[in-house]
TrEMBL record:
This is GTPase IMAP family member 7-like. Residues 1-82 form the AIG1-type G domain. The gene is LOC112866617. Residues 43-117 form a coiled coil. It comes from Puma concolor. InterPro entries: G_AIG1 (IPR006703), GIMA/IAN/Toc (IPR045058), P-loop_NTPase (IPR027417).
Amino acid sequence: MIVLLTHKDVLEEKSLSDFLADSDVKLRNIISECGNRYCAFNNRASEAEKEAQVQELVELIEEMVRSNGGAYFTDAIYEDTEKRLKQREEDLKKIYTDQLNNEIKLVEKEYADKSQEEREEKIKWLKMKYAEQIKNIREEAEKGLFRDGSNGIMSLLSKIWQMFW
């Protein structure tokens, strides 16, 4: 990640590095967690200055990609994400299996006075529903992981917002 600050123009004569050195420890920690990758944009810059700011950001991105061996994500990030996805898949499979077993028990109670054929048909339908859930488990795990990541980013941005306002 790269921290992009705006309103560089508010700093006036103070350098960005001096501002960050004097800033709240939380902001310094965030920047540190981002590999000390940061830059600031002047909102009132001329067109030439805006172009230079964009170029600075692009160079930071390119340097980050180079340091990751040409990948946008490091292997460690990919491996961690894959590990978390597999854990979420296992958790979902356990939840679905428990749900299926509980629903089968309920069907056996509810259909105790009905024909075995009706009971078996209902159980067969439950197992088909379970099979469909298992078939889509990877996609659901990815959605959950994405949702958690988005919520984490929003929480972090909210904390940053509160630090300054």
